Model the fold of this input.
Amino acid sequence: MSSVMVRADEIGLIAIKNARISGRVSVDLIKRAKARTGLNTDTELIEFALANVAIEDDFLTVFDAVAGAVDPELDLDAG
Done:
């Protein structure tokens, strides 16, 4: 189970299956997404995609907020 799905399970997002979703998408999109993720069913793929959106870590927002915040005294050449 991926870290995304582990986290979704930990916070109770996937414990109860009580909703249904449907939509029309490209079969090529589904095939490529399944190949990249290793998932086999449409349900697993949809659940994984939704969990990714639901628990996104906002890395880019945080990264942008600290831009230029590296301590100027930090020795980046230290090894």
The chain has four helices and no strands. The CA atoms of residues 28 and 34 lie 10 Å apart. Helices lie at 3-10, 27-37, 42-54, 59-65.
